[in-house]
Write a structure and sequence with these properties.
Blueprint (H helix, E strand, L loop, with lengths): L12 H13 L9 E5 L5 E6 L7 E8 L4 E6 L1 H4 L8 H9 L5 E2 L4 E2 L5 E6 L2 E6 L9 E4 L6 E5 L5 E6 L2 E6 L8 E4 L6 E3 L4 H6 L6 E3 L5 E8 L5 E4 L10 E4 L9 E8 L4 E3 L9 E7 L4 E6 L5 E7 L6 E8 L12 E2 L5 E7 L4 E6 L2 E2 L6 E9 L2 E7 L7 E6 L6 E2 L6 E7 L3 E7 L7 E6 L2 E5 L12 E6 L4 E6 L11 E5 L18 H8 L3 E6 L8 H4 L8 H17 L4 E11 L1 H12 L6 E5 L10 H8 L6 H7 L12 E6 L8 H12 L5 E5 L9 H18 L5 H8 L2
Parallel strand pairs: 3-5, 39-40, 39-41, 41-42, 42-43, 43-44
Antiparallel strand pairs: 1-2, 2-3, 3-4, 6-7, 7-8, 8-9, 10-11, 11-12, 12-13, 14-16, 15-16, 16-19, 17-18, 19-20, 21-22, 22-23, 23-24, 25-26, 26-27, 27-28, 29-30, 30-31, 31-32, 33-34, 34-35, 35-36, 37-38, 38-40
């Protein structure tokens, strides 16, 4: 007999019904939010991107003039008559790597003064004058044959460098100047100049492959040779006549791209930069100050991170500092960089304090009780950083003086904040809290504080969140319950809804993090979200617990949090009906849960799961598991294929067939292993869908299909039955 439940409650039924479409149409309620801030060094203006409405995916380029606070739209794709649908493959790859699902202007680059900006629309190059009156024509197309990728102005705003057909080109800003000139390139499809390789963009957060010198006369340019990288093919089974897409994918233990760096002048002359690539093959970042280029380079095992300076006249390299760890050294956004006085600003892990700290020339300058998340910029002799204190679910913006003076919080301790900084006094802060449905963006400058308006839509559902530190490890968790439910209504079936892996958190002090979880809760579930060991914000030791084994600790923490929640919230959780769902690492964790702990988890929805870590990329996988040939047991412990014969619970596998990050082979191999073991399961292939699932119809339907599966698996009332229970 199917158990009956009166959910969603009448008071939220309309909002609950509307949520999946609203969530999909607004791209997870991100559209219309101002983002991509660039602050002028003199504090006169701020450039940013924002679409016109919460369901408008077309980004426009805006300028906020200070101190008056007047906004100007300087580039509107509709007025420019430029479509953004036909993208060059390099731009499609960039958007996939940064999880960009919007359209229009999604990225731009400004000159040093933030007086000009360049961007592309459908591969066409545009130049915006950020000083001009928009009615006088602030933006114009720059005539370039072929598709343009990643245009960037030189510091003076006189020239534009860009990538076209795997080569680096330059064109003068002056409209009567010469035609674009190819600076460096090779007629070899396996070699590109000026683009990041796959693992740099996907795992190192390095989205660029060239950097202007401060004088605008030279560029540091990365050369990427993928000839030794294994070729994989992403196919569209729905189009049997279609040509498969070839993908150079560096799987764990296999060859990486060969990355070198050269200084290239405006006449195309090259000067090779000779850092020790045999020891440090990963080029993690490049920072070019007024003095000389600075490189951050990693060993393949990521246990050492070297900072190296380059003589721009000879290309010779000089080691500046090295960080080392027995497990791995993390890359921190915004550093390293060289300060105006020549000192090195970087992050380091302090083992005594178990904290990630900001340092100058190896000396920590941030407090021991702060976990540095990233560096937003330098303002008035201080670093503007994001950091967590004693609560990893909150991220605040801090001002860290570089002379060792006391740190100063710039935001409340509660909430999740981001920042951009520039000049001496201008800081842009975007904050989300559990109390607000949208983000609040404020500009703090010498004249006061201004608010940049958001056009984002508020979710139809208001999350009913209870956050707690559960169990002996104080596992940060959030419990979401149906609106209208009380303990007198009896215990609820449970849905665990984690990500559960490194480099990401689900439990944050931001309402936007819990919209989907609340939708499942209002369908009649107690939804438990838990960040276990390996997640950021709790110190290096916590993150490194998963070294050599991605399965045991993350799964144990989900089990411990579930049982601790049942004790902390008596009468709320029905432990005889527990499901788990997730995407990417969360999908891996969901499948792992029903395979290894069927005594606890009774059903799972696994979206885009990694099932065989030998099929995932080098930089991510080897950081945690090492090389497959060196430690095969680590890969076997963490993989799922050997567990397939033990499946006894309902399992739904979902995978985008166009996914080039976690390729569909992960799901297909697990499905084959399950079939060969005679274990029933379901597979939902998503045709034409990547790792992001950006398609509106797909995103909406996926929520409803998952709920139907869970209702059936846990023997609770289907949606149609729920409706009949409360209808007149």
């Amino acid at each position: 007999m199917t158990a009956q439940r009166p959910f969603p409650a009448e008071g939220v039924r309309a909002a609950w019904e509307a949520f999946p479409r609203q969530h999909a149409r607004t791209q997870r309620f991100t559209l219309g939010t101002p983002r991509g801030f660039t602050v002028a060094p003199d504090g006169s203006r701020i450039a940013f991107i924002r679409s016109s409405a919460g369901d408008d995916p077309v980004g426009r380029l805006w300028v906020l003039d200070l101190p008056a606070g007047a906004e100007r739209c300087v580039a509107d794709p509709a007025e420019l008559g430029a479509a953004s649908g036909d993208l060059p493959p390099e731009e499609r790859a960039r958007r996939e790597r940064v999880r960009e699902s919007g359209g229009g202007i999604t990225a731009y680059a400004a000159d040093e003064a933030v007086s000009k900006a360049v961007f592309t629309l459908g591969g066409r190059l545009f130049l915006a004058d950020l000083d001009a009156d928009p009615e006088a024509g602030a933006t114009r197309a720059v005539t370039v044959d072929g598709a343009v990728v990643d245009p960037r102005l030189d510091p003076a705003g006189e020239r534009i460098a860009f990538v076209r057909a795997g080569a680096l080109w330059v064109v003068d800003v002056d409209p009567v100047a010469d035609e674009p000139r190819r600076l460096v390139g090779e007629d070899d499809p396996d070699i590109t100049w000026g683009l990041p390789e796959f693992v740099a963009a996907e795992e190192m957060d390095r989205q660029r492959g060239f950097w202007w010198a401060p004088d605008g006369r030279t560029l540091a340019v990365a050369r990427v040779d993928v000839s030794t990288v294994t070729t994989w093919y992403v196919t569209d089974p729905a189009d049997p006549a279609g040509v498969p897409t070839a993908l150079r994918y560096p799987a764990a233990g296999a060859p990486n791209a060969d990355v070198t760096l050269a200084l290239v002048d405006l006449d195309g002359r090259r000067l090779h930069i000779g850092w020790d690539r045999a020891t440090y093959p990963y080029l993690a970042d490049v920072w070019w100050s007024t003095r000389r280029p600075l490189l951050a380079a990693q060993t393949r095992d990521q246990r050492r991170l070297a900072f190296v300076t380059v003589d721009p006249t000879t290309g010779a390299c000089e080691p500046l500092r090295e960080l080392a760890d027995d497990r791995w050294v993390d890359l921190v956004p915004g550093v390293p960089r060289v300060l105006d006085d020549g000192r090195l600003l970087h992050a380091l892990d302090d083992p005594e304090a178990d904290a990630r700290r900001l340092a100058v020339n190896g000396v920590a300058v941030s407090p021991q009780d702060l976990q540095i998340r990233g560096v937003a910029g330098i303002a008035d002799g201080a670093a503007i950083v994001t950091a967590s204190a004693d609560d990893p679910t909150a991220v605040a913006v801090w001002r860290i003086p570089l002379d060792g003076a006391d740190a100063e919080p710039l935001t409340p301790a509660a909430g999740v904040h981001q920042a951009a900084a520039g000049g001496d006094v201008v800081v842009v802060i975007t904050g989300r809290t559990l109390d607000r449905p949208d983000a609040l963006t404020e500009v703090h400058h010498a004249g006061g504080t201004l608010t940049i308006a958001t056009n984002a839509r508020a979710p139809a559902l208001a999350p009913r969140v209870q956050q707690a530190a559960l169990g002996a490890r104080g596992l940060r968790s959030a419990l979401l319950l149906p609106n209208g439910w009380t303990v007198d209504d009896g215990p609820l079936p449970v849905l665990c809804d984690p990500y559960g892996g490194p480099h990401a958190q689900r439990v944050m002090q931001a309402r936007a993090a819990f919209g989907v979880s609340q939708w499942f809760a209002d369908a009649g579930y107690a939804v438990l979200v838990t960040d276990g060991r390996g997640s950021p914000g709790r110190g290096p030791a916590w993150e490194r617990t998963i070294a050599g084994d991605l399965a045991t600790a993350p799964l144990a923490d989900q089990v411990d949090a579930l049982h601790a929640a049942a004790e902390a919230f008596p009468g709320t959780l029905d432990l005889d009906r527990v499901a788990i769902r997730g995407w990417s690492f969360g999908g891996y964790l969901a499948a792992l849960a029903v395979l290894r702990r069927p005594d606890v988890f009774h059903a799972a929805v696994a979206g885009a799961p990694v099932t065989e870590w030998r099929l995932y990329d080098t930089h991510y996988t080897e950081r945690y598991l090492g090389l497959p040939e060196a430690d095969a047991d680590a890969y076997d412990r963490s993989g799922l294929l050997r567990d397939a014969p033990g499946l006894t619970r309902p399992l739904l596998l979902i995978h985008g067939l166009a996914d080039d990050n976690v390729v569909a082979a992960h799901t297909l191999r697990l499905s084959r292993a399950l079939l060969e073991a005679g274990r029933p399961h379901r597979v939902l292939p998503l045709v034409g869908v990547t790792h992001m699932t950006p398609q509106e119809a797909v995103a909406e339907a996926l929520l409803r299909l998952q709920l139907d599966f869970l209702d059936d698996a846990l023997d609770v009332a289907p949606q149609s039955a729920q409706t009949s229970l409360v209808s007149p």
